[in-house]
Amino acid sequence: MNKNFTLLVSLLSTFLISVAAHSQSWEVYNTNIQLQSRLIYDEIELLSETVKIGKKGNELSLLSNDLRPAVSLIGTEIYQYLEPWILVKGPKGIGAFHEYGQLVLPLEYDKIHTYFTMLLASKGNEYWLFERGKNKTTYLGELDEAKITNTGLVIIRKGNEYSMPLSKNPNKTYELLADNEGEFVLAKDSGSYGLINREGDYVLDPIIQTLEHTHGNFFYGFNQDQYLLIEGNDIKSNIRYNSFHKITFENDILLEYIHGKLRRVMEDDGILLDDVGITSVDKIGKDLYNVHFRDEKLGLLGKKGWLVKPMLDVEEIHFGTEGLFPAKSKGAYGFVNSTGTWVIKPQYAETTLFSENIAAYKTSLNWGLINSSGELIADPTWEEIKPFQKGFAIAKANSQYYLLNTFGSPLNTVGFDDVSRTTDGYFLVEKSGKTGLLDANGEEIIPTEFDGLRRERKNFIIVQKDGLTGVINDVGEVIIPVAYEKIKVDWTNNQIFTKDRYVPTVIQVLEDPIKRNKKGA
């Protein structure tokens, strides 16, 4: 045999064995577990219903509908996917592709901020802007700050000057341009404040002495001895409330004082409560206020008025459920109704909200259960009790977890290290590092013998055991053997991806000994 050919075969065999040690194969099934295709990738990432990425070695590819490489993404890893932009990381930095495959920013930037129709990229203090509609990248220069607002307005700052490079007047400078959660930018120009819409046009001319954002599209300001509540509008902003009396905005609460006395609780565009004798207001949640009065009454105020009418002998009233509100008096908690009457006298160190007519209460140490009439359901023997859902609560004792029924009795005599609900009412349980599954009635359907378990949907549970992954149904029957490195599911396209080691067939060519002997004769 030719020595060069023998050497070539030897090198080829070594190469194939090396490939076998590193190559990965993926099998693609439909949801009826029928094999559709086999793919050779190290990794497959399912970014969305239509965007799938394949990785082989250091090569990333955007895959076509038939899962073949369609576009090389040049980089080595997916940095982030923010529809419709795929941010890719390479040796020199971050770049961006449109999900259709177009490279829009080379892989050389430190940061990229995304918006639906544009990208803002930076290297150090230099900034570039890509606009999809124009399909071009513009250099913005060396800046101290640049951002895209939540409405797509680009704001830049250099020193103490702000500007909007995409507006009708890109060279105009401002003393301040501040975005917020709403749709209008707060602008300061020539010492006064105004509001700018997403097109960069003033919808409130800069004539207000002071102006600040409160919530949504609402602003609080002061001008010419008047306090103003202003709502942004795409064409012309509206003054929804004005007053010569003092209005304050502190601790996220708008309050109006008349002749120096607190009189009104304000919402963003008007009066929420007008009452004599208010001494202070505490915000305890979104649109929830404890209002204190001079006669020592306290009420719980909501967006549409009193949730609990002002009452005596109470220090706090909290948000409630099922018509009962936790309230504190003389250091102890009970429950009041909307009329301000005690339904369950204050006697507990702490309480939860009512759920399915049951609440948990805490003594100095442990938790028990009561019903909505205050009758005892379970003694305080638990370290923790979570709210009831569909007839069961999760409770903890001696660092172990149990399921409680509505009588306060545990369903499982042996505790678990952890119990958590699935979105469809089943229970994942853990014991000694292993995971199992209980059904909606607390009955064991999969024993705690798996390293990991995820219930994707009815009769489809992805499990891990001894470093391998498979799929079983709700009664523990095997759908896909526990023999794969990874399993991923694309329910929209009815595809199941299973990852396994791929060992190619290596053909070893042996030299014929007879021919070798003849050659040497």
Brief sketch in words of this structure:
This is WG repeat protein. This protein has 521 residues and is mainly beta.
If you had to describe this structure to a student in words, what would you say it looks like?
There is one protein chain. By secondary structure, this protein is mainly beta. The chain has a domain at 143-243. The protein is 5% helix and 55% strand. The protein is built from two helices and 54 strands. It has a four-stranded antiparallel beta sheet with strand order 2-1-54-53. Strands 3-4-5-6 form a four-stranded antiparallel beta sheet, with no helix packed on it. Strand 18 (176-178) and strand 19 (185-189) form a beta hairpin.
Topology:
Layout: H1 3-22, E1 24-30, E2 35-40, E3 43-46, E4 52-56, E5 59-63, E6 69-72, E7 77-82, E8 85-90, E9 93-98, E10 103-109, E11 111-114, E12 118-123, E13 126-131, E14 136-142, E15 145-148, E16 154-158, E17 161-163, E18 176-178, E19 185-189, E20 192-196, E21 202-208, E22 210-213, E23 218-223, E24 226-231, E25 238-243, E26 246-250, E27 253-258, E28 261-267, E29 270-274, E30 278-285, E31 288-293, E32 298-302, E33 305-311, E34 316-317, E35 325-329, E36 332-336, E37 342-348, E38 350-351, E39 358-362, E40 367-371, E41 376-382, E42 384-385, E43 393-397, E44 400-404, E45 418-421, E46 427-431, E47 434-438, E48 444-450, E49 452-457, E50 460-465, E51 468-472, E52 478-484, E53 486-490, E54 495-501, H2 513-520
Antiparallel strand pairs: 1-2, 1-54, 3-4, 4-5, 5-6, 7-8, 8-9, 9-10, 11-12, 12-13, 13-14, 15-16, 16-17, 18-19, 19-20, 20-21, 22-23, 23-24, 24-25, 26-27, 27-28, 28-29, 30-31, 31-32, 32-33, 34-35, 35-36, 36-37, 38-39, 39-40, 40-41, 42-43, 43-44, 45-46, 46-47, 47-48, 49-50, 50-51, 51-52, 53-54
